[in-house]
Amino acid sequence: MNKFLVCDTAETPRELPRGSAPFFGFARLLRRFGFAIAPEQAIAFMQAVSLLGPRSMDDVRRSAVATFAPAPERRVEFDALFESWFCGDTGMLSPGDQQDEEETEIKDDNATAEEQIITIQDAKGGELTSGAEQLNTRTFPSDDLRLDKLERRIGAALPWRRSFRTVRTSTGSNLDLRRSMRKILSADGDIPSPRLRRRQTVPRRLLMLIDVSGSMKLYTDDYLKLAHAAVQGTGGAEVFCFGTRLTRLTPALRIKNRDQALARAGALVEDWDGGTRIGRTLLAFLSVPRFSAFARGAVVVILSDALERGDSTEMETAFRRFAGAAHRLSLATPLAGDPRFRPETAALRAIMPMLDDLVDGSSIAGLSEFILSLGRSAPDIEPMSGRGS
Amino acid sequence: MAHEGEGIATSPEAVMSRLAQSHYLADEELATAIFLALRLGKPLLLEGAPGVGKTEAAKAVAEVLGRELVRLQCYEGIDAAHALYEWNYQRQLLAIRQAGEAETDIYGDRFLIARPLLQVLQAPDQRVLLVDEIDRSDHEFEALLLEFLSDFQISIPERGTLCAKTRPLVVLTSNRTRELAEALRRRCVYHWIGYPDAEREAAIIMARSGDVARETAKAVADAVRDIRARPLAKPPGIAEAIEWANAATILEKGGSPWPEAFRRAIGVLIKDEEDIHYIEPEMRHIIEAAMS
């Protein structure tokens, strides 16, 4: 049987002792589901099982976790695979269905019967948003939209910060002892001009948070394409989307082919075009230390209509925290595409003082220009901040 | 195969029991990971939220093994000169001047400044090396560690490869502010330390604090569990819970009645202004529920 072979492709595959086959089989199963399992980990797994007895299935599970080191966000999937393989639980997903990225879910604890989902084409007001959770998936049609300019230039267009790492330089205040010493030795002990180092500058991280609720349905496709170009253009971009849940899209958007990347992202997000809980999902983002670290010192662009239902206190708190942590906080709202737009809702008025920019998010070209202008002190695109009352 | 930690690494239960003697209450999962790290001779990678006791675990292991703990605190920009070794350039220059025309070896031991990793390799006795908060370092530094973690050796271009005289136990900790490379993860025995359940946390508070009553420890553990479930910017860790129990006990002995003592000592538990504003209105309810 294939599953009892050491290697699928070896010319003369050796059969393992019968007792060890399930353990190596589990390693191969993990690989099929996208876990990066090295051969030495499979061997360590066997050794660990032997060391622990095993006295029970718990010992086998602990050995597997300790040696295969699944990331915490994939632990549920890992456990399900373990159950499926060792305990015969067939409830596991097929390889094509697994969800292997981080996802922070927010329980649907405040949805009421009155909150009906309204899937609309022309949502314009906060009264049409919903706090209820509706799970959907989406497929992205192929698109020829050109975002090459953004992809090409974003690396140099973001604001810069001084890193603690140093680079060689001809001017500067820090002596490069190692290189200077080598120069001295090659010059027979003479003291030549000293070699210097300086702290290097690196682009700041770009954090994009995309609202995928029903009221943003018309724009989310374009935003995802924009985000893909940003991730491709700079190694320091992070992308999350939120509706009633929070989903990290960065790993999916690292796939170079745009259609494949968007298809992957489409499969990851479960709350496309659903309800809106802006404040709560943003607070959930901030409450995960690993995620909130992405905002520290970063350029944060929130792409949302900012139409929060009910009390906007949580949204205000979230924006205040973002403003405190980020280098620059911008809100891009498609509503600003209307010349008559004024930030007059309670939520927008509350967050206006915390924003560095409030910009028009209705056109992908305008947004690209805005992102490319972030490194400059005054963006070329006219911010809407002045429209506030 | 001779293995490290002969004294404690006979079983996960033995590890648990010995750690408890040094006032570190490990659960079965963590004890198993430590046991496997000792027996397999692999580094131990501990990940978890800040304040769950990752560094303390390394200290406790060093204590029960009776070995010296060498700590390398990672930060952005840390490099080989800070972690591995550095040449004493001034001394090398003086040696060149003194030698004059004669040939002199300036890459001898007396010119080598050993940093923590090299110190551990050169130590005649077994050490515990704590590489703390590896996630704060750069990817380049992480790559630099790979040789050390897989073979317990360091390559110095001028000297060749130095191997460990005695294999150290290496404990790496990470708060997951960034993802670690797969190459590093697969070299290690891995364990995710989560927050303990209320009962265990109460036991930890009792074991670690000076003079806290069982009821106080239980109330603190229940209240902290309730507080951690809320969306705070900085959820309190176990160390904060211990400090809260200690501070409340001191206030109570100073004449402050019980629920009030907890409320007044909140500053040692919550250390973020916005979190305090958020939690303050609900504190009375949380404390009363915990004390009931």
TrEMBL record, chain A:
Mind telling me which InterPro entries this protein's record contains?
Answer: UCP010256 (IPR011195), Uncharacterised_CoxE (IPR008912), vWFA_dom_sf (IPR036465)
Which spans of this chain does the record mark as coiled coil? none
SUPFAM superfamilies, per database record: vWA-like
UniProt-recorded name of the protein:
VWA domain-containing protein
Automatic annotation (TrEMBL), chain B:
Q: Which CDD domains match?
A: AAA (cd00009)
Q: What is this protein called?
A: MoxR family ATPase
Q: Which domain of life is it from?
A: Bacteria
Q: Which PANTHER family match?
A: MAGNESIUM-CHELATASE SUBUNIT CHLD, MOXR FAMILY PROTEIN
AAA+ ATPase domain mapped to chain residues: 40-194
- Could you tell me which InterPro entries the record lists for this protein? AAA+_ATPase (IPR003593), ATPase_dyneun-rel_AAA (IPR011704), CbbQ/NirQ/NorQ/GpvN (IPR050764), P-loop_NTPase (IPR027417)
